[in-house]
Amino acid sequence: MDSNKRFSSGSFTPLYRQFMDYVKSRIRSGEFTPQTALPSIHGMVIRTGISRETIVKGYAELCREGVLVSKKGKGYFVKDSYLTGIESIMVFMDKMSQHQQDVMDGFIATLGSRTDITIRMHYQNPQWFSQAQESSLDRYDWYILFPHFPQDEATQKTVTRLIGKIPPEKLIFMDHLPAGAPEESGACFQSIEEDVPRALESVIEDIRSFSRLRYISLSVSLYGNMVAETIGKFGEKNKVSVEKLGDIPETIERGDLFFVSGSRLDRRLSELLKRFTASGLVPGKEVGLICYNDFPLNEFIFGGLTTLSVDFKEMGRVAGEMVLSGSLSKVQCHASLIRRRTF
């Protein structure tokens, strides 16, 4: 039994709090370090003479306060951030696109120098996600996941299993909220199925001034089919003629309104804009164009591309606030229509 510490059941301070103070004092003295597991629950019972139930409660509260971290099958360890004051964050990102860079800009700007951020790419590959995950579990205070993976059932089942390895109270989903996300986890996400029809219905009379709405997915997209299906439902509900195209049409006709999803760097977007010019039709009046997701250059391309987009820096800021407060919630970041010359 530890002779340097006396625990009193008659004190105004509950025993589990006395035990927590004892652990913190041993951390400050350097006896308990992040590199070595603290004594087990049974070991602490022998060491302190306190009941098992009190030790369990004390360890749980120390974990909740961010003093310790529980590593499954290994025991309790001192968190690096408790000693340094800097929280460690692992970000699993599928690719460094412009909008994901904007998310991270907002995230990092909010956190400032109070965190140490590591980024690993999974490239939408569950196997690579698994490999990145295995080397990082139990090492970070927070995990940020861009859960962009193929939408087929087998892949989603694998990804759900892998996500289940991350403590949900430390997990924040970014940009997309997958089905079955743990209740305790956080999320800052957009919803294609809600935002696309809501934004288009807000300008329905302007859309009806065109003859038809033509949807094109310019590049391979995880959510291309979802966008196409959503656009189709919007057309049926609002009695708008919708045509889904597999590629850039040879000709552009008066009354065509295009809704385009894909990278701003896609060469076919350049080809579409060339055909707009060749048509001799006036953008925004005789023909129209709406691009999904905004990028800085969209303000200048073709005199200003109208876009439907989330504020990605704001999405990152909201996630950063969750980390700073330690309070997780699921926040939907709504997309809005940014009207410029083409619509």
* Main beta sheet: 6 strands, parallel
- The coarse overall form would be elongated
List the uncertain runs: none
The portion of residues assigned to helices is: 25-40%
Strand content: 15-25%
Average the pLDDT over all residues and give the rounded result: 91
The CATH topology of the largest domain is Rossmann fold
Q: Supply the number of structural domains.
A: 3
Strand line-up across the major sheet: 4-3-5-6-7-13
Task: Quickly count the helices.
Answer: 12
Quick one: CATH class of the largest domain? Alpha Beta
Using the 3D structure, state the CATH architecture of the largest domain.
3-Layer(aba) Sandwich
Query: What do we call the CATH homologous superfamily of the largest domain?
Result: Response regulator
Distance between the termini: 77 Å
Q: By helix and strand content, what is the structural category?
A: alpha/beta
**Whole-number radius of gyration?**
26 Å
**How many strand units?**
14
Which series of helices and strands comes N to C?
HHHEEHEHEHEHEEHHEHEEHEEHEE
